[in-house]
Amino acid sequence: MVVFLFTFFLFTFLSSTIFGLSVSFYNLNIKDALNIIAAEAGVPIVYEPNLTGTVTVEFESENVENIIEIVLKPFNYYWTKIDGIYYVGTMNPTNPNFFKVATLLEVPVFHADAEILRSSLPKSLQDYILSTNDSNRLLIYAPINIGSMIANLITRLDTPSREAKIIFKVLDVSEGFLDSFALTPGTGNLTGLHINILQLPISGSYVNLLFQGKEDSQRMRILSTGQLTAQNGRTYKITLQNQLQTQQITEGKVSNVQNPEVFEVTVTPRFAAKKCHITLNFSYSGILFGTNSENAKRGATLSSNVSLDYGVPYVLGAISYEKKIEKEGGISILGNLPFIGSLFRWKYYEKETRYIIFLIMVEVD
């Protein structure tokens, strides 16, 4: 009887090895599928009890190891062969049997910091990185296929740090200036947009005109400019300050007031081949809302993610305010008469809407 069973299993094993295995599963529990594969192939398969899922596959004269690989792949389960026994389980590093399939790989780091590279990996892969105090290497403890994939990602991420120049510009323009381009600001809907921020439908040559334009005291003024040299993935903060002259009406009298403005922006750039992806937060404070001296100063905040082409200026947004312009009117002929001409001349004020526009551009060598 023992000889018969041995002969049966030997015949089954040789048949599945030489001719391949033919099986067909439809919506079958994965444990039952592994049991059938083991019986048909005449090989022992030991699996963890927490395996779940159903299998629908069909094989014709296929190698047993290829069958196991394909059956397990949708569930991200591992398999390994030790002393002729196939072990199947989950790839979780906390699994007590994980050591049976895990391999230790050491990846040298030449350019970036090891911890920065680790944090750049998808969270599902970070658990396979062992903690060390060495910033010049990473230790991967994972099944060979996952370990090789992680090592390849690290090698591709570990490149010389790329630098770019980020330029900011803050302009003060009149509504008439925008009207000359048939532009009408409207309330925007960017992520994290403050109600006081407006979007301007400006693109192409119009933005270049704003960014490269020279200062015009009436139509366009350059309030602030600033730039920084940034590296990939690092966070930077820049603060621009300016004194903006506005008018206040107090007891019927108009007076000029110098308002300190503060523009702060925090950026985290990530450089790609053709674009720069920037996570930014900026705040602007100091401008008066309206013209009455009792009105409080207001500001605006913006949080957004933008993708910029290199060398192309981009409008982040704008904020509007009102300015009183003093003008003189009267009866032209009588107003020019000596001594009494002043009786026929008077001063009046016109309200002008102006816009503070925030621009940004990224340049690379």
From TrEMBL:
Pfam families for the chain: Secretin
Type II/III secretion system secretin-like domain boundaries: 216-363
Keywords: Membrane, Signal
Record carries keyword Cytoplasm: no
UniProt family annotation: Belongs to the bacterial secretin family.
Name of the protein this chain belongs to: Type II/III secretion system secretin-like domain-containing protein
GO cellular component, one term: type II protein secretion system complex
GO biological process, one term: protein secretion
Cellular compartments annotated: Membrane
